[in-house]
Specification:
There is one protein chain. This protein has 479 residues and is an alpha/beta fold. It has two domains: 102-329, 3-Layer(aba) Sandwich (Rossmann fold), CATH 3.40.50; 340-478, no CATH class. Helices cover 24% and strands 28% of the residues. It has helices spanning 2-12, 47-58, 75-92, 156-169, 199-214, 230-241, 284-301, 325-329, 454-464; strands at residues 102-103, 111-120, 123-136, 144-150, 175-180, 218-228, 248-252, 270-276, 308-313, 340-345, 359-363, 371-378, 381-396, 406-415, 420-425, 436-440, 443-448, 473-478. Strands 1, 2, 3, 4, 5, 6, 7, 8 and 9 form a nine-stranded mixed sheet that branches. Strands 10, 12, 13, 14, 16 and 17 form a six-stranded mixed sheet that branches. The chain has a three-stranded antiparallel sheet with strand order 11-15-18, covered by helices on one side. The radius of gyration is 24 Å and the shape is globular. Residues 24-43 are annotated as: Disordered. InterPro entries: AB_hydrolase_fold (IPR029058), Plant_Biomass_Hydrol_Est (IPR050955). This is Esterase.
Length: 479
């Protein structure tokens, strides 16, 4: 009788209610099956838990992360499943959405997003971002390349209108464009918010990337940020900050001090910076030259990486020919999972990235604003150099007395201590069927097998919202 009851409960899936112990949330890993006997991932029972986790992270809460062992043979199917559930969670999430992609024209309809209010001197300013979103030409099979164009700091309605006209004129079809008008920026006080890299704008760019990746209209490997003047400053900063999402970036008539946009992060980003030789206000042409010099040094140190096109244009001032940037950018495709990464982790407007490429800081060393990670994956060894970064003033402008403008810095590196890091792994980076070694600053901190798990796919999907970076495995290390 007991055996009959047990079999009945087993068939009904109600062992716990029949007095048997509850099923484990993280079962023991199954033995890998040979490639000639593929099986369907047993994920159906986890769908609800995964969707609940996604729903919680979309409102910046921390839900229960579902865990379940994953066969290496099932990674491709599991990625498809997780991305489908992520799409469903985003569809249900209450927020302003990207509109349908329609042909870009002079008559394009403006849309808008309501962003988190911006703060300046303790006062709150509403942040509404109008934008145009449209396409040129026929959609390629992989989707349109997407260009984010950032306008300059003149009267914003006129700048925004000029941006639409320029986008229509550039020879980069087929392409899609997101052309925002900056929130605020018209009054004396809120004019201080006329920057493309402040908190509410970072919110907008991450929403744009997340929703664009979910669209079947956009190629996730061909995202480009560019802009003119204030938009040049913004796109240079954002290129360094969001390097892992970009195939290329193209600031024009800009030139940032390198502390604001570390060029080390541009290892896999095609970077164009074009400034007039006579554009000397705020040292724009001079700072462009320092960026060129730094990229040339890195390109020599890392052959094949740090592709760049830096042009200090003779006889031109702040207004330059703009038509050359997007044709250059359009030639390049993103590398989402490189086996060599240089990443200076730094904050913009007080905000840090949740991770970059396959690295995610879990704890930053106390009192250290910037950490420089250098990762090389060779065979099944992950070799990391992790250092703190200190900037020491080297060259200060004597042109302005109203603010302190440092043109050049020396960097001082020291081995970092007191941090924790998550290293995401995938079949694209190494062989998950074999043991993995991890070295940090020359010392082995891990050696052994790494188990694939649904939790890593789900958590990395939520962290990066990137279809090209769904990682089935991870190692957490302390340094």
């Amino acid at each position: 009788m007991k055996r009959l009851t047990y079999l009945l409960c087993l068939a009904l899936g109600t062992l716990s209610s029949c007095g048997a112990s509850a099923a484990r949330t993280a079962p023991e890993p199954e033995k890998a099956q040979s490639s000639d006997t593929p099986r369907t991932p047993t994920v159906r029972a986890s769908d609800e838990a995964i969707q609940k986790y996604f729903a919680s992270t979309l409102i910046d809460q921390k839900g229960a992360l579902p865990t379940s062992a994953l066969s290496l043979e099932d990674i491709k199917k599991a990625r498809t499943q997780v991305w489908r559930l992520w799409a469903e969670a985003n569809k249900s999430h209450s927020e302003d959405k990207l509109p349908a992609l329609t042909p870009l024209s002079k008559e394009s309809v403006a849309h808008s997003w309501l962003l988190t209010p911006e703060m300046y001197n303790g006062q709150s300013y509403q942040a509404v971002m109008p934008f145009y979103y449209g396409s040129k030409g026929d959609k390629p099979e992989a989707g349109y390349p997407l260009y984010l164009y950032l306008h300059g700091s003149g009267e914003k309605k006129g700048e925004w209108s000029t941006g639409l006209a320029l986008a229509l004129s550039f020879q980069d079809s087929p392409s899609a464009y997101f052309i925002p008008q900056i929130p605020n920026g018209e009054g004396v006080a809120d004019g201080q918010l006329y920057r493309w890299w402040q908190k509410s704008k970072l919110e907008a760019w991450e929403k744009l990337l997340r929703q664009a990746f979910l669209s079947d209209q956009i190629d996730p490997k061909r995202i480009y940020f560019f802009g003119i003047s204030e938009g040049g400053y913004g796109s240079q900063r954002l290129a360094s900050y969001y390097a892992d999402y970009l195939a290329g970036a193209g600031p024009m008539a800009g030139g940032e001090p390198l502390i604001n946009a570390p060029v080390e992060n541009l290892q896999h980003v095609a970077f164009s910076l074009r400034t007039g030789y006579n554009d000397t206000q705020f040292h724009r042409s001079e700072l462009t030259g320092y960026t060129r010099d730094a990229l040339q040094r890195l390109a020599a140190q890392y052959p094949g990486y740090y592709k760049h096109f830096i042009d200090i244009i003779p006889k031109y001032g702040h207004a330059i020919p703009y038509q050359y940037t997007t044709p250059y950018l359009s030639q390049h495709v993103r590398t989402p999972q490189p086996n060599q990464v240089n990443w200076e982790d730094y904050p913009i407007d007080g905000l840090y990235r949740k991770g970059c490429y396959n690295l995610a800081p879990l704890k930053r060393p106390e009192g250290k604003e910037r950490i420089y990670y250098q990762e090389t994956i060779l065979g099944n060894t992950v070799d990391l150099k992790i250092n703190t970064v200190k900037y020491v003033e080297k060259l200060v402008s004597d042109w302005y007395t109203s603010f302190h403008l440092v043109l050049l810095y020396d960097k001082v590196y020291e081995p970092a201590k007191g941090g924790k890091l998550r290293i995401y792994l995938s079949p694209e980076l190494l062989d998950l069927s074999k043991p993995v070694r991890v070295l940090v600053n020359g010392h082995q901190v891990y050696s052994g097998m790494v188990k694939a798990d649904w939790s890593h796919l789900v958590e990395s999907c939520s962290r990066f919202f990137d279809p090209e970076r769904l990682f089935p495995a991870a190692i957490d290390i302390a340094y």
